[in-house]
Design goal:
Elements: E1 7-11, E2 15-16, H1 17-24, H2 28-37, E3 47-48, H3 50-59, E4 62-66, E5 97-98, E6 102-107, H4 113-122, H5 125-129, E7 139-143, E8 149-153, H6 158-166, E9 174-180, H7 187-199, E10 202-208, H8 217-226, E11 240-242, H9 251-265, E12 268-269, E13 276-285, E14 289-298, E15 301-302, E16 306-309, E17 312-320, E18 326-327, E19 329-330, E20 336-341, E21 350-354, H10 357-372, H11 384-392, E22 398-405, H12 408-419, E23 427-435, H13 440-449, E24 452-456, H14 464-471, E25 475-478, H15 481-496, E26 499-514, E27 522-533, E28 537-542, E29 545-557, E30 560-561, E31 564-566, E32 570-575, E33 586-595
Parallel strand pairs: 1-4, 6-8, 6-9, 9-10, 10-11, 22-23, 22-24, 24-25
Antiparallel strand pairs: 2-3, 5-12, 7-8, 13-14, 13-21, 14-20, 15-19, 16-17, 16-21, 17-18, 17-20, 26-27, 26-33, 27-31, 27-32, 28-29, 28-33, 29-30, 29-32
């Protein structure tokens, strides 16, 4: 009961009419009649808005208290919290063990990504041992002759790669950029490279189709060097392997180099930690219902566990590996298909394990209700204004841009001009520049890389505005170059924040300390140089060591309140939160001014 004698009802959203009636000891149809009086027409199994439920309860003499997860009135066990919104427990170094690397192939269309992956699968020792049965689940596990494993993601390209990353799913360790030796670097190759760079993952290069007569691997190396990838054999850091998916030439060497990179990265995970990972792809399968291919970053997933994949939950009825075999459990970096979900999640959705199926259903219903209400669930909002605010706290010192222009000449001119705006204090980085309209893929890259899209004399493709609004990406369009450069330069200056300049106004020596009946002690001072001003700041020096720094509360010359006291005059002053004066202390008065920054 509350102070007014009303019975208190605790309930978690979504608020279903039938559940509310049970809590109130009423029949559902009685509540439906009351709802009709409020011009709300619902069914017993339908959820109603929280404000409507509050009004309904007040009319019937009840007080409704909405329980929020993590903010319930009574303390609950940690397992009862929304496990999917909690950060997974940090693995203890004792349980960390090496895990397989996760590799994604990216590159231009028809440069042989799928053919190369198929050729690698056919060299898989385990595949031959199991009869060569391979079922497509969005990922493949390849076992090398020395017994080590590599996980390959069968993503359709950099669009899916970036879309997952925009949702926070950073699952790839190594990106292998596939370039055809006869075609060389193409526009989509550059786009894929920029997406991989923005993700901050290790990049390797597979120069494919080296068996063709028109193959020119050195030309490919030179082109890639122009885009920031210098081959190891030319003194750089990028491993480039010459391969042929058709003749299988160089496949073993490519796998060896991938494992070498994995050793350098020291990839480890904790199989004993709470299971957590991401959805690679999901679909609705006949006879199985909703299924999702997941990749764990830590922990061990087992049949029978209750899970959450984004807003959808379920209980694992079966785990299927990439060979189509049923398995009882899966560890870190081991892709498996989950059977038993209640809905189809999005690629990149976070996977977590909860205590029970009941808890999974409660959290799932709450999240789905939030989605129906239109609660924003997109990635972080990011604009130039947000960037300036974050720069004030020292979080950001790099402005990421995606640049699209109408012609190549304008693109190069704007790119060069923007690059010159960078300084040693703040950095401007164009993570992707291309000719053509602004596409949905540009927005996804901007969302993942926290970038702003700059368009010069270009249009937006259909639907891009809606995607940008959902992902929280700012798009700025210009038709005059100097306006574009001026605004970007202003943004860079704003990131630096104003330059703080300190001007010393004068000094005074404490001659005597007075204790009055009211208030803190007063310092009797003699101004030795310059002047003391009431709106200035003061630094108390004792044997050249700073004892205090703050503002003047009171400044007097004899009995008069004054605004300033000049050299050769005596005064009494009080400081804010400091009265431990000693005769001989030096008071240094100064002003702090903010000046526009210089890039």
């Amino acid at each position: 009961m509350d102070e007014h004698g009303n019975k208190v009802i605790h309930i978690r959203p979504p608020i279903v009419v039938r559940d509310l009636a049970t809590r109130m000891g009423q029949r559902p149809h009685h509540l439906l009649a009351k709802l009709m009086e409020l011009n709300v027409f619902a069914t017993p199994n339908e959820a109603i808005r929280e404000d409507v439920a509050q009004t309904l309860c007040e009319r019937l003499g009840f007080k409704l208290e909405i329980e929020r997860r993590g903010h319930a009135p009574a303390p609950r066990k940690p397992r009862e919290a929304d496990s999917a919104t909690e950060v997974a427990a940090k693995p203890t170094p004792v349980h960390l063990v090496p895990r397989p690397p996760v590799v994604t192939f990216m590159g231009h269309v028809d440069h042989g990504k799928t053919s190369l992956l198929d050729a690698i699968r056919k060299t898989d020792v385990a595949a031959h041992e199991s009869g060569g049965i391979t079922q497509h689940i969005g990922a493949s596990v390849v076992t090398t002759p020395d017994g080590r494993t590599i996980t390959f993601l069968d993503t359709p390209g950099h669009e899916a790669f970036t879309k997952m990353r925009a949702r926070g799913a950073q699952v790839t360790d190594i990106v292998v950029l596939v370039v055809a030796a006869d075609d060389g670097v193409m526009p989509q190759t550059i786009e894929a490279l920029n997406h991989a760079k923005a993700a901050g993952v290790t990049i390797m290069v597979a120069i494919n189709k080296c068996d063709l007569s028109a193959a020119n691997p050195d030309r490919v190396r030179k082109q890639l060097q122009e885009h920031g990838l210098t081959p190891e054999e030319w003194g750089g850091e990028t491993i480039m392997c010459e391969v042929s998916a058709h003749t299988k030439k160089g496949i073993d060497h490519l796998l060896e180099m991938i494992l070498l990179q994995a050793d350098i990265l020291e990839l480890k995970a904790d199989p004993k930690a709470p299971p957590a990972g991401y959805v690679i792809e999901a679909q609705l399968e006949p006879g199985r219902g909703p299924t999702a291919t997941v990749l764990l970053k830590q922990g061990t997933l087992k049949v029978g566990q209750a899970v959450l994949c984004g807003p959808h939950g379920g209980k694992i009825r079966a785990l299927i590996n990439d060979k189509g075999q049923n398995v009882k459990e899966a560890g870190p970096a081991q892709p498996v298909k989950i059977v038993g979900l209640w809905g189809v999640p999005d690629a990149g959705a976070e996977l977590t394990v909860v205590a029970s199926e009941k808890e999974a259903r409660e959290i799932s219903e709450q999240r789905l209700a939030e989605l129906r209400r239109g609660t924003p669930t997109a990635g972080p909002r990011f604009s130039l204004e947000d960037l300036l605010r974050s720069a004030e706290t020292g979080e950001v010192k790099t402005l990421h841009l995606i640049l699209k222009a109408d012609v190549q000449g304008s693109l190069e001119a704007i790119h060069d001009a923007l690059t010159k705006l960078s300084s040693d204090k703040v950095k401007l980085e164009v993570i992707h520049a291309a000719v053509g309209s602004i596409t949905e893929n540009d927005v996804l890259l901007a969302s993942a890389a926290r970038a702003v899209i700059i368009g010069f004399r270009v249009k937006l493709e259909s639907g891009v505005s809606e995607v940008a609004k959902r992902e929280g990406v700012e798009i700025r369009l210009y038709s005059i170059i100097y306006e574009l450069l001026e605004q970007v330069e202003e943004s860079l200056k704003g990131m630096l924040g104003p330059e703080v300049k300190e001007t010393v106004l004068g000094q005074a020596e404490v001659r005597q300390v007075f204790e009055l009946s009211k208030g803190p002690k007063v310092a009797g001072c003699y101004v030795t140089s310059g002047r003391l001003v009431r709106n200035g700041r003061v630094r108390v020096l004792r044997r050249r060591a700073v004892q205090y720094e703050g503002k003047i509360v009171s400044l007097r010359h004899f009995q008069d309140d004054v605004r300033e006291v000049k050299a050769g005059m005596e005064c009494g002053l009080r400081l804010d939160n400091f009265d431990a004066f000693q005769p001989g202390d030096i008071l240094e008065c100064f002003m702090v001014e903010k000046a526009p920054p210089k890039t």
